[in-house]
Fold this protein.
Amino acid sequence: MMNANIYRHEFRTRLRSVIIWSFAVLGLIVIYFSFFSAFADQAALMNQMLQRFPPEMRAAFGLDRMNLSDVLGYYSFIFLFVQLCLAIQAGNYGFGLVSIEESELTADFLLSKPVSRTQVLTSKLLAAFTCLTITNLVVWASSFAAILLFRGGREYESRTLLLILLSIAIFQLSFLSVGLVISLLVKRVRNVTPYALGLGFGAYVLSAFSGVFGEVTLELLTPFKHLDPAYIVQNGAYDAPLVLLNVAITLVSLAASYWLYIRRDIPAVS
Amino acid sequence: MSIIEVNNLTKYYGKARGIVDVSFKEEEGEIFGFIGPNGAGKSTTIRLLLSLIHPSSGSAKVFGKDVTTHGPEIRRDIGYLPSEVYYYEGMKVIDLLKYSASFYEGDNTQRMHDLADLMELDLNRRINDLSYGNKKKVGIVQGLLHSPRLLFLDEPTAGLDPLMQRKFFDLIRAENARGVTVFFSSHILGEVQRLCTRVGIIREGSIVEISNIRTLQQNNYKKVHVTAEGLTPAFFDLPGVTNVQTEDGTLHFFFKGDINAVLQRISGIQVADVTIEEPTLEEIFMHYYE
């Protein structure tokens, strides 16, 4: 089912990108969390200030449901931005998974080798997922480190933190597979970055503004809502139906991707 | 058993025509020339045989196996040199070739070095830094290093200097002598004539002729230009002479038949210049129009 050569090649190709993204999330978590004790000490002042913000804005950042003087409340606020990074990274790998070979015209080389399309796609997916897992592990490590260093003796529910961290892989897989299936549905992806940014920010905005406009069902489509850190902290649990919906979207996207890729005509040089 | 067997193969890209109802066979050990102008459907045919694209209708077999269902198995014994070579830009030549070799059974390291030496290819350079001709050499080594039984060459000589072209043709002949079957696509009649035993001519997606290269040449016109003083069209009033035109003291005509008849006429006069050349491919196609 998998070809080790393709896997290795794909992994190496993304290594630099993985390192950059991993440092980005590491910096984000550690630097932002280092302000935690200042926030927590001035909690009353902080909440007063936040009260003056328009409620729509507080809703957009989930601040209406977050207590910034609490370890996990503050962490879940940062985690939203970590999610945004992870979404763009995973979307980027998804969109580029097969489209880069096609736009850089190396697909002919690869697909004239004695491998099946299924093998190619599986190897590429596993390599991309390995890369995402490295970033995932960096988020785990830097989260634990930042909380350990900067929590200032405040208590937190470690089970809830684990729930938040465990949501990362599910979150990444959904952006990877949705990016992939979109790249196979459009005729030709010439540049991956705008697509990845569009998908990442689009999904984020959809989730952020769902709170602003009240009941909009479109928000049910975004992984940011499915795995909303504020919800997990508030309830100490996942929103199970939404998580299942997220997994379903991932599985459908993956199945559709295989179906499309096996039947795909590889565009020639023109 | 035919190595390639194509039956009524048709490919449409949406509404755009790729190839229509193409049928032909290539036997083991042949060098089959596939000739036609750009956009005629040569690459489409090769890409169908490699299952890079899927047929709209019809079928194709390679090594007796259907290309749509046995692609990976078939490709084990295929070498492919595309018309435009593109490789992973950041890689070194040696890494690309090793990556390529890793897909095939056995150790091809020695052969890789032999081929690279022969084509004078520096293995330690980065693909980005290579000229078009050097990339083409990478393509040649890459296509041959696993000793395939069947070679697809799609306009292989573009970008190679004449010396390299010759080396390349010698290499292909040597491979062919070892029993390798070659499918050679080109729009240059000359190189097809040098190498191939049989040719198929494709035009606007359809095969117009499949014949022995000799027959094709014998049935064909030569283009003759003679410059001499006081020359009149009446001087070359021979059977087989057509399209006579006079221009600035030079007589142009097409000739079909035994070329000695023309040469005898020419030897009887004092000429300033004589050219006898192969018709261009377009002119051959004109012939198939008639």
